[in-house]
Specification:
single chain, 5-stranded parallel sheet
Amino acid sequence: MRTVILDMQSGLYAGTVRRALVQELTEYQVVISPKPEETAAACRLLKPYALLLEVTGYTPWDLEERLKIRESVRRDVPECRIVLIVDEIADRKLAEEVKKAKQNGLVDAFLFASASESYLAAMLDSL
């Protein structure tokens, strides 16, 4: 069974994404990190297949803080795939920065928040 860890600003949004992934990916365990400060430790403990990090304009969910988590996870769990998700409609500039992080090889993938649940699940399963 593969594990995916979600680290998202909104608990409601995280719960929705978790339910969607569990429906689409029956062989996956989806864990929600309770706080960004606990995400890297959860990754060390659970050795997830993927870590999905929401990026917003607010600390501790801003891109700089997310890349710090990514650095820690890469060091401790190098096989973990790192995926960023950003609301491209609410913040086009931030969406462009997230895209550049992928282009620069800092993350394995990125998603726009407008992506469908089935696309999210298929993308994660294909990493």
